[in-house]
Amino acid sequence: MTKKFACKDIGMQCGFTAEAKDENELMQKIAKHAKEAHGMNKIDDATMKKVKAAIKSA
Ligand SMILES: [Zn+2]
If you measure from the C-alpha of residue 48 to the centroid of ligand 1, how many angstroms do you get, rounded to a whole number? Predict the structure, then answer.
């Protein structure tokens, strides 16, 4: 099972997508992207909830 995330799914004007084999790995990729592309040194709780809701399994 693959976990997928797209920034646009949480309303970002951003073409970033990520996929990984589990949610932990995916969250690491998302955290790195959020820091580098969106200047978020830490993902806040509200954003984290949106991210988790937007993660799809495929
Ligand atoms: Zn993004």
Answer: 13
pLDDT per residue as tens digits for the range 9-58 = 999 999 999 999 999 999 999 999 999 999 999 999 999 999 999 999 98
Phi/psi at 17 (5° precision): -135, 155
CA of 34 from ligand 1 middle (Å) equals 6
Tell me, in angstroms, the distance from the centre of ligand 1 to residue 1's CA: 23
Dist CA 42 CA 51 (whole Å):
13
